[in-house]
Structures are given as structure tokens and as C-alpha cells.
Automatic annotation (TrEMBL):
This is Oxidoreductase. Belongs to the short-chain dehydrogenases/reductases (SDR) family. It holds the Pfam family adh_short. Keywords: Oxidoreductase. The lineage of its organism: Bacteria, Pseudomonadati, Pseudomonadota, Betaproteobacteria, Burkholderiales. The keyword tRNA processing does not apply. It comes from Ideonella azotifigens. NCBIfam families: PRK06179.1.
Length: 261
């Protein structure tokens, strides 16, 4: 379980441990013994050597790996897309998408050798809905969704299934570690502040991470897992995306964020 030190990752790892999984959570700093109901390993998903070392350590201890939950990631504070440099764009993709790819590539040989396994990727409703002023984060989650769909087709005949869990707003400390734009432009000042205020308002009443943890457990244990899982509010948003006319969806997005029509 990557990104298990807090929020969705911690809630999911805890719930998996409670139902009998031997859980290894990861974070860049690891953790002191006794801090969690599961063991923590130090792992930086942006470094190939760190990923390989953590997976090898786990295999030496357990001899098999049945479930990978890719959760590590971070967001960007609301801002115009052009307010973040190419370096920032590369940084968020390196964690949110390429980190997931690194982990997947590291575990697949072991799952294939043992004849099966599950991979659950934590995506977002922003992987199928537009979010103005969150373009880079949205792009990483679109990439996660596309990668997950293709990967499941490739692996299902080898006994390995892939699912993507796509929550909407979740009330976690995630928003406390947002990357601030490094190329701020005055033209976006007012709308940037307005969107940030609106997001904070919604987060106050949002579901807690346990809602996502329950769905991850369902995806991990289902006899016939679905490709997409949308917890709570996200299920209604997926229905809107699927059935609402484009003009209605467009207007709804702008109205929700209190943007000019």
C-alpha cells in the first residue's frame, strides 16, 4: 500500500489489516514501530532503486504478494494551467502516474509467477470529469484511468486483475500538502482565490477516507472485480458524465465552482 502514512492510504491499510491481510504500508519516511496497525516500509515511488528495494524486502519476508494498492500522490493548489512550470508538471506526473507505473512493473513478475494477484489504483473523479484550475492533477488521473483499463485487458488471462477507485472530494489532510504554482499570473488571481475557497467549503462536508477504504476492500476481494469503482458522491458524478448532454455537464461544472458562464 503506497502512501499509507495518512488519509486514504492509512484508512485503507488499516481496514485491510483488520480483515486479515498482512499489510505493508509505505511512505517516503517509513514509520516508527507501533505507529500503525500495520508495518511501514520506506519507499519513494519516484526512484526506481527505492521501489525495487522495497518490493524485494517484502518478497524476502513473505514470499508472495497478492495485492498492490497504488495510492501515493499529491495535488496542486487551484491555479491556471499556465501558472505551473514544466518542472512542476513533470514532478506531479512522476509521483501520481509514473510512480504507479514503477510499482506495477516491480510487482507483476511476482504476481505472474504465483499465478495471480490484484492491483487497485486510486484515481479520482477528475480522471473522467473536467476540473478547471486543476488541469495538471486532472491529467495525471486521466492517465491513471487509461493505464488501468489497458492493463486489466493485458493481465486478466494471467490471473491478475486491475481496478481503479475514483473518489470525489474526500476530507483528508491531502489538501494541506498541495504544490503551489511557481509561475503565478495576476490575470488568474481572483478566480484562483474563488476556486480555492469553493474547494475548501466542499471538503468540510465531504466523506471521510473510510468510504474509499471500504470500496478498495470490495475491489480487492470481489470474485469478479469491476474495472471502475466510484465511492459515494462519485457514483452520481459518473452517471452525470455518462448520460447528461455535454452542455449540461459544462454548465454544471462552472456553476459548482462559481465561475462565470
Amino acid at each position: 500500500m503506497t502512501g499509507a502514512s495518512s488519509g486514504i492510504g492509512q484508512a485503507t491499510a488499516t481496514q485491510l489489516a483488520q480483515v486479515g491481510y498482512k499489510v505493508y504500508g509505505t511512505s517516503r519516511r517509513g514509520a516508527q514501530p507501533g505507529q500503525h496497525a500495520f508495518e511501514m516500509l520506506a519507499l519513494d515511488v519516484t526512484r526506481d532503486a527505492s521501489v525495487e528495494a522495497a518490493v524485494q524486502q517484502l518478497m524476502q519476508r513473505e514470499g508472495r504478494l497478492d495485492l498492490l494498492v497504488n495510492n501515493a500522490g499529491f495535488g496542486v493548489a487551484p491555479a491556471g494551467a499556465e501558472e505551473s512550470s514544466i518542472e512542476q508538471a513533470q514532478a506531479i506526473f512522476d509521483t501520481n502516474f509514473f510512480g504507479l507505473v514503477r510499482m506495477t512493473r516491480a510487482v507483476l513478475p511476482h504476481m505472474r509467477r504465483q499465478g495471480g494477484g490484484r492491483i487497485v489504483n486510486i484515481g479520482s473523479v477528475l480522471g473522467f470529469l473536467p476540473m478547471p484550475y486543476m488541469a495538471l492533477y486532472s491529467a495525471t488521473k486521466h492517465a491513471v484511468a487509461g493505464y488501468s483499463e489497458a492493463l486489466d485487458h493485458e493481465l486478466r488471462t494471467q490471473g491478475i486483475r486491475v481496478s481503479v477507485v475514483e473518489p470525489a472530494y474526500i476530507n483528508t489532510p491531502f489538501d494541506a500538502n498541495l504544490m503551489q504554482p511557481d509561475a503565478v499570473l495576476d490575470v488568474y488571481g481572483t478566480v484562483r482565490a474563488g476556486v480555492e475557497k469553493r474547494v475548501k467549503e466542499v471538503l468540510v462536508g465531504a466523506d471521510g477516507p473510510e468510504v474509499v477504504a471500504e470500496v478498495v476492500l470490495r475491489a480487492a476481494t470481489a470474485e469478479h472485480p469491476k474495472l471502475h469503482y466510484t465511492p459515494g458522491l462519485a457514483s452520481r458524478m459518473r452517471m452525470l458524465r455518462r448520460f447528461a448532454p455535454a452542455s449540461v455537464l459544462d454548465a454544471g461544472v462552472r456553476k459548482d465552482l462559481r465561475l462565470e458562464a
